[in-house]
Amino acid sequence: MVDAAERLRDTGVVGESATQELNYVARWGSPETLDAIARFLTDQYAFESEPTEPREKEASGVVRPESLMITNGVSHGIDLACAQLTKPGDIVVVELPTYFLAADVFRDNGLDVVGVDGLEEGIGPDGLPDGTPGYFDVGALERRLRVDGLRPRLVYLVPTHSNPRGGTLPERDRKRLVELAVEFNFYVLADEVYHLLHWGEEPPPPRIGRSSAARVVSVSSFTKILAPGLRVGWIETARSIVDTISDRGYVNSGGCVAPFAASIVVSAIENGSQARWLQRLRERYRGTSRALHDAASREKASTGWKVASCPPSGGYFLWIELPADCDERGVTRAAEDAGVAFLPGSRCVPGGTLEVPREERSCRLCFAYLDEEKIVEGVKRLAESVRNARGK
Question: What is the spatial distance between Cα 20 and Cα 18, in angstroms, rounded to a whole number?
Fold first, then answer.
């Protein structure tokens, strides 16, 4: 194995730094890879707001290599966490609406998916709606725990610039969620893949993965900030949980799941191209998100749809709620005829969870793929599709 790796290096197929990654690597990743990613994340997370609680301030923003495990991406991290921290028949709570493919991973692991409604609109420090997208309702979860006797093993959410609605959970609610996890003995599975894709004037709250509680498992990935085809992500959690999650048969047998691809990521980190590319993405998405929000806002009067008053400050998505007299299926058909694609909100309500009528007439729009001109044209066509579906 060593000879083969050296021959590949000598022929120029791989560089010196990647040679060891062509051999077996420890199941959580090589020390060099974990060190590089930890340094990169520490630097990038420096834009977070500082925790307000003294105890949380002690849990500094420094990402430690021993708290990380390399994965094949967020979906793989979610699957590993389910496989190692739950058993069939356990309950996983998800926000409604939620990432539309997460429920498949949970059900593949034999888990029962229970939905908890998200807030329709963000709540400011004064306790009043602030015009931002809604997010996970921690208060509703607490009521289900205390009044209904709900006993989940996992609570899954996308806390920052969520998929699908784009909402960001405030620090006070993040702190309360972790407190509930400790009290009621469940794990918070935080999908923080959009946390670094932030361009708002105000920094986002500290990521949930920063918590020192051994009840938090953060999953994230280079998918959205470098290249999805590399299939390199990470889990960040307490070291004891890293040991538990990584103690999986195929991981013990084969070691780290992506050593060579991770070495490419490390090279991009060390030569500065990852940081530069991430900044370019932020600048691009700032423009495309504004274009999408402005175009959607201009059509509010003629369509009757609802859109957050504030443009996105990060992530990938803008959420639109269609008027009550508008059927999502009819809009979808009309939009397809007009050459417009979007994710129907009904896809974001896993089958078997509570029915949420507003999700049956909603659209998730993505601003991460098209340029501003095409986005504006797409909104015009979508608006016309809505008007046609309403007969107006």
Answer: 6
Cβ–Cβ < 8 Å for 284, 371: no
Domain ranges of the chain: 2-271, 275-390
Percent of the chain that is helix, strand, coil (3-state, to 5): 45, 15, 40
DSSP letter (8 states) at residue 222: S
Please give the structure tokens belonging to residue 204. 């986002």
Q: β-strand 233-237 against 216-221: which pairing, if any?
A: antiparallel
Q: What are residue 245's phi and psi, to 5 degrees?
A: -65, -35
Is 86 or 23 the better-scoring residue by pLDDT? 86
Quote the percentage of the chain above a pLDDT of 70: 89
CA-to-CA dists, residue 317 to 26, 105, 124, 197, angstroms: 37, 22, 21, 11
The fourth-level CATH superfamily of domain 275-390 is Aspartate Aminotransferase, domain 1 (3.90.1150.10)
**Tokens standing for 12?**
């120029």
The third-level CATH classification (topology) of the domain covering 2-271 is Aspartate Aminotransferase; domain 2 (3.40.640)
Closest alpha carbon to 101 in 70, 124, 78:
78
pLDDT, tens only, 337-379? 999 999 999 999 986 444 445 667 899 999 999 999 999 999 9
Phi, psi for residue 332 in degrees, rounded to 5? -60, -45
* Separation of alpha carbons 132 and 167, rounded Å: 7
